């Protein structure tokens, strides 16, 4: 509330179009509501919300509210009854234009059309315009202690500079970028005019210019395409996620993108009239995405969390209840091992949350894993158990079962979090994909290479199976040299011919073939004695862990690859590792750490907001734990996708470090 009051004072001093207004603080007492406070001051709820936008979320005892005290008698203090005329809003008309046309103040129009305190004019709507005769006023006189020019001079503001300004009331889903463009400003100019405004909230007044652009340049639509203006710092990865279109299709529609994404470019994208994009503030979300959110400092909802975990244990396949039978099942069943490891991390997170005051009612279900009846088993679980009060479901592991759970629970809008699947899933509105897809990993690495490849000699070694990523690399790095492996092998002489002697060489290796991986890494290792070489890939497959691919060679080449986690960084995870070893007697693997990180993130989000959806609107940055990072972006078709990706580097001492993160 303190910063809102300071913000209001700023507008009172510097906005010459605003009518002078007097205010007082009101301290909320027990039992008071916004309605009762409004009645006591003879003002409307909108008057309170205008100067106290936070009050729309509710008020608490001892909270301070800014009350416009002379608004209470603005209508009753008239010597003569105010008459009105009706005006039908035409296209492109603004409050400023109407105030000039009818010779009334903007605030006088808003006073008799309360919705305009929080909404913009809508073409075709009818509003009331008060007939203000000469000498008549509907406001109390301004305090005369310091004149506006004096206040501006004392504050270091040029009165001439502030003369051509007006106020803009922020409406839901507006962004700084959109507002700045509307008034012919840059975002920097808007922020300089409003230095106390950090995050936009509906109802806040901003100081803006008077030059309202006739055509808003951000989105233009027709029946077939939408035309979108690229915002600062946007890249391929963000654009493909925002509009649900792959990189190659975006380039096909916009050939200029072959030279890279540039701020201000206008792109053609397929129109999607049923897109859910309009329901989420993408721009403000992205503006805050580099902020690390510590949810532990925002805990407020300490109701018991109803958490369901669905994992494929397949316990019905274990014929006896003997210890040996379970041991054999664990040793021989990889899916069961992953489920148990993940669940051990879940339990660690529930205990950690309990220490923070968050109680959890945890229920666990065995979804089994029979390809013929996976979805049926999930539906049976939901049909035969009470899910009415469930706050979130973590799992199942597989794509088909996760989609079945999301579909079944979508009517109740119960969040379903996919913990491990890297497949692109059906766009259910309640589905949260916590693991970036392989395509996202590749796109992040391609963007990283494109942004950092200046003055590098780029060599791409890609086999026939990697034609899709080869096309992306060709578009992103048009100066790159390409080597096509033959018979599962790449000769050292072929690589040597493509390498430069006096420049840094970036070699991008795209293959899952062990022979190609081995020949390339060993050959480059020898060539690196005389040349500066770094090795990259857009996909680190399991064959990189093959005994024929030397970790020492990868380390000497400073191997770079995209990853969803930090691959069990011993230093960062030391505390967790020690607690896990004490509890379970062994070092946790990546699935155990992910179970902990994901579950703790869900519980902290539930404890710091009304529900999981509310948490993403409140905290638009990323959360990060021992090994995993979470930054959920809304998908154009529905649901949310974690797009947090690490670029990892293998150091010469075989340690891992984060080169960059997105």
Write up what this structure looks like.
- It is a single chain.
- This protein is α/β, with parallel strands linked by helices and 662 residues long.
- The chain folds into four domains: 2-209, no CATH class; 219-273, Membrane-bound Lytic Murein Transglycosylase D, Chain A (Roll); 295-436 and 570-649, Rossmann fold, CATH 3.40.50; 439-563, 3-Layer(aba) Sandwich (Cobalt-precorrin-4 Transmethylase, domain 1).
- 35% of the residues lie in helices and 17% in strands.
- The protein is built from 24 helices and 25 strands.
- The strands form eight sheets. A seven-stranded mixed β-sheet has the order 11-10-12-13-14-23-22, with helices on both faces.
- The chain is globular, with a radius of gyration of 30 Å.
- The model is unreliable at 1-21, 71-80, 134-163, 214-223 and 273-288 (pLDDT under 50).
């Amino acid at each position: 509330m303190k910063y809102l009051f300071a913000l209001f004072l700023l507008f009172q001093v510097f906005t010459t179009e605003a009518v002078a207004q007097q205010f007082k603080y009101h301290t909320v007492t027990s039992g008071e509501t916004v309605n009762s406070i409004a009645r006591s001051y003879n003002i409307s709820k909108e008057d309170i919300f205008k100067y106290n936008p936070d009050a729309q979320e509710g008020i608490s005892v001892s909270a301070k509210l800014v009350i416009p005290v002379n608004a209470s008698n603005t209508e009753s203090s008239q010597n003569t009854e105010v008459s009105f005329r009706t005006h039908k809003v035409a296209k492109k008309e603004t409050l400023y234009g109407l105030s000039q046309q009818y010779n009334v103040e903007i605030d006088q129009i808003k006073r008799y059309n309360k919705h305009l305190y929080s909404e913009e004019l809508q073409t075709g709507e009818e509003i009331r315009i008060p007939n203000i005769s000469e000498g008549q006023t509907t406001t109390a006189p301004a305090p005369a202690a310091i004149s506006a020019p004096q206040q501006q001079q004392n504050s270091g503001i040029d009165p001439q500079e502030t003369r051509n300004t007006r106020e803009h009331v922020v409406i839901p889903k507006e962004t700084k970028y959109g507002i700045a463009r509307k008034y012919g400003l840059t975002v920097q100019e808007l922020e300089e005019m409003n230095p106390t405004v950090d995050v936009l909230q509906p109802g806040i007044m901003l100081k803006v210019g008077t030059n309202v652009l006739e055509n808003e340049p951000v989105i233009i639509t027709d029946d077939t395409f939408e035309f979108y203006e690229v915002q600062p710092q946007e890249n391929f990865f963000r654009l493909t996620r925002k509009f649900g279109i792959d990189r190659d299709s975006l380039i096909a529609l916009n050939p200029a993108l072959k030279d890279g994404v540039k701020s201000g470019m206008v792109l053609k994208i397929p129109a999607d009239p049923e897109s859910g994009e309009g329901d989420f503030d993408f721009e403000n979300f992205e503006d805050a995405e580099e902020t690390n959110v510590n949810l532990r400092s925002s805990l407020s909802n300490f109701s018991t969390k109803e958490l369901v975990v669905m994992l494929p244990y397949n316990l019905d396949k274990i014929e006896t209840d003997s210890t040996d039978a379970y041991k054999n099942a664990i040793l021989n069943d990889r899916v069961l091992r992953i489920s148990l490891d993940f669940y051990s991390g879940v339990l660690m997170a529930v205990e950690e949350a309990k220490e923070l005051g968050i109680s959890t009612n945890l229920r666990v279900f065995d979804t089994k894993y029979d390809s013929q009846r996976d979805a049926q088993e999930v539906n049976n679980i939901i049909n035969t158990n009470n899910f009415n009060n469930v706050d979130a479901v973590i799992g199942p592991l597989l794509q088909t079962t996760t989609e079945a759970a999301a579909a079944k629970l979508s009517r109740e809008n119960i969040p379903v979090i996919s913990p491990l699947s890297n497949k692109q899933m059906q766009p259910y509105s309640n589905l949260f994909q916590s693991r970036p897809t392989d395509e996202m990993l590749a796109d992040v690495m391609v963007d990283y290479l494109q942004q950092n490849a200046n003055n590098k000699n780029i060599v791409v070694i890609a086999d026939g199976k990697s034609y899709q990523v080869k096309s992306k690399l060709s578009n992103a790095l048009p100066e790159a040299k390409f080597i096509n492996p033959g018979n599962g092998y790449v000769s050292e002489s072929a690589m040597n011919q493509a390498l430069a002697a006096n420049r840094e060489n970036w070699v991008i290796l795209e293959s899952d073939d062990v022979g190609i991986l081995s020949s390339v890494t060993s050959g480059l290792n020898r060539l690196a004695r005389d040349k500066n070489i770094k090795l990259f890939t857009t996909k680190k497959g399991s064959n990189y862990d093959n005994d024929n691919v030397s970790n020492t060679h990868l380390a000497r080449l400073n191997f770079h690859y995209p990853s969803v986690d930090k691959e069990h960084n011993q230093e960062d995870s030391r505390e967790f590792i020690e607690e896990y070893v004490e509890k379970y007697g062994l070092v946790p693997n990546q699935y155990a750490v992910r179970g902990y990180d994901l579950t703790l993130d869900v519980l902290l989000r539930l404890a710091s907001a009304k529900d999981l959806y509310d948490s993403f609107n409140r905290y638009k940055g990323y959360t990060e734990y021992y090994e995993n990072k979470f930054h959920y972006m809304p998908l154009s078709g529905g649901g949310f996708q974690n797009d947090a990706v690490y670029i990892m580097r293998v150091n010469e001492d075989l340690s891992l470090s984060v080169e960059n993160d997105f």
